[in-house]
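Q: Convert this sequence to structure tokens.
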Amino acid sequence: MKEITPKHLAFVDEAAKAFEDNPKYETYYNADRDLIALRFGADRDCIKVYELGEPVGFFVQQVTIRTPLPRKEVARFAMDMEEQLRANELKGGWKVCSNDYLLHQLYRNAKHLELRNHHLSHSELRRRCANIANYAMMLSDNDRREEEERASES
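A:
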């Protein structure tokens, strides 16, 4: 570890503000690009600072707005969802689909799951579940986009 200087401490404050302003940020650089802050911790409220590749310090609980990592099960399921989205990318995406179509597909997949539940392989069951979740996500995403468009028109 290096000696922590006032420059490092000022950068921790700067990085904490950047992480609070942009909850999706995981990395933050200073203007000179000689200090790098990485977000850490289960609640994403810790900051590890590097200077020219060497750790400066690990500052615990510096970010007041916490964004915890998803549970292991949620992360695995999200990966299953992403795999299904990638497998179906050639279909063109959901932004041009009507809610009626997306809801129909959600129900169709759920019905298939209901009717064949005892005869599905483990991978097929997970694939169907990911498809159902993807259609629900698509409906939610389209709704959020419509809401944002209405708000920007106002």
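The chain has a mean pLDDT of 90.
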